[in-house]
Backbone:
């Protein structure tokens, strides 16, 4: 697979980003075949190189390893005139420049899109910002809090909770990659580059999806509901005899089948529960009735019976169990590149599959070759 040309074979990316959103975007581009040059600070490199524990067997931070495969690393001090000249050459010879510095850093280094595109009009630049386009630090935790996501996450009577992974950073990285691909398509069609901008706050608001629409169209401000859904029922965790499991009943037909499996067909005919809207309105008596029926068997038994009838349901898996499940359903969730295990790219292509050519690089590992190329 490593020898298969990717969809972005021949595209070069100058990656000035660090931490998560930017490196995830450039790793995706690298997986798709692009040559990604990661420009890092001498001495310390990407912040995530020090974000441990945990550490891999080789002593690398697991966090860093998660989003930096398929890249070459060069250590450059952008305050040093000679290093800055190398960085500028790398940028001008690239198809794409990606960065997530605070406002003004790239401008002062004359690595901003306006300056670079004056010399190379076909250049695509991507700027990843924090809370809007001002100078508020761009950390995922802040975006989850300030963007409304934490206000709807957690138990009804508990405090707001962040999601257990830096999901806003992840989504911002995905949007950055999408934006770059669209800009490259435009460049290929017209010869014209452009600046792509995405920020954590806009991404958070966009990701609120139906909750944002509830506010915009109906004036409904979402509150924390634990594992319940504001507009669907039953779509939550329900208790069986030995513990809870997840049920996602998305329509009236599924609900009738669900009740049939549980042996409570009368609930499907009860006017309080015949439609989804009615079930949402009468959620408490619905859940009480369902859990009385579920209490007669174990969660595993119900999952087997319900699954056999096409009802979406399952256990709340830990991370190791989730990977094992992926293998059981025919996926290959892990790829190993020179002994470094990382999560496989979820995209599947019939002609240009993702490739895994390089493990996450050591700091400055490719200094010599990248500097030679920039001469």
Residues:
């Amino acid at each position: 697979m490593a020898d298969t040309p990717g969809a972005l074979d021949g595209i070069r990316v100058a990656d000035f980003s660090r931490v998560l959103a930017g490196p995830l975007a450039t790793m995706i581009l690298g997986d798709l075949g692009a040559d990604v040059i990661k420009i890092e600070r001498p001495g310390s490199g990407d912040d995530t190189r020090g974000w441990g524990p945990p550490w891999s067997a080789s002593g690398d931070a697991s966090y860093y390893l998660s989003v930096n495969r398929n890249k070459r690393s060069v250590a450059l001090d952008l305050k040093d005139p000679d290093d800055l000249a190398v960085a500028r050459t790398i940028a001008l010879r690239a198809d794409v420049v990606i960065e997530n510095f605070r406002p003004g850093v790239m401008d002062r280094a004359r690595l901003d899109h306006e300056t670079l595109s004056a010399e190379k009009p076909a250049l695509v630049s991507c700027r990843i910002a924090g809370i809007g386009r001002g100078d508020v630090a761009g950390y995922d935790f802040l975006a989850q809090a300030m963007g409304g996501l934490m206000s709807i996450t957690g138990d009804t009577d508990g405090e707001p909770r962040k999601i257990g992974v830096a999901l806003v950073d992840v989504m911002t990285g995905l949007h950055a990659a999408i934006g770059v691909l669209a800009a490259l398509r435009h460049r290929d069609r017209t010869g014209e580059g452009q600046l792509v901008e995405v920020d954590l706050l806009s991404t958070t608001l966009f990701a609120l999806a139906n909750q944002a629409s509830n506010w915009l169209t109906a004036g409904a401000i979402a509150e924390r509901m634990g594992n319940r859904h504001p507009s669907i029922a039953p779509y939550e965790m329900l208790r069986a005899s030995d513990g809870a499991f997840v049920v996602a009943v998305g329509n009236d037909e599924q609900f009738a089948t669900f009740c049939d499996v549980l042996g409570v067909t009368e609930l499907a005919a009860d006017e309080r529960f015949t439609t989804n809207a009615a079930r949402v309105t009468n959620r408490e008596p619905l859940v009480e009735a369902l859990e009385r029926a579920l209490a007669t068997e174990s969660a595993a038994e119900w999952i087997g019976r319900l699954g056999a009838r096409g009802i979406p349901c399952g256990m709340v898996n830990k991370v190791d169990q989730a990977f094992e499940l992926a293998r059981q359903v025919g996926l290959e969730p892990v790829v190993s590149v020179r002994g470094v295990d990382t999560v496989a790219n979820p995209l599947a292509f019939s002609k240009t599959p993702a490739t895994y050519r390089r493990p996450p690089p050591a700091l400055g590992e490719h200094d010599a070759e990248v500097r030679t190329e920039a001469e």
About this structure: The chain has two domains: 12-208+337-373, 235-320. The CA atoms of residues 259 and 265 lie 5 Å apart.
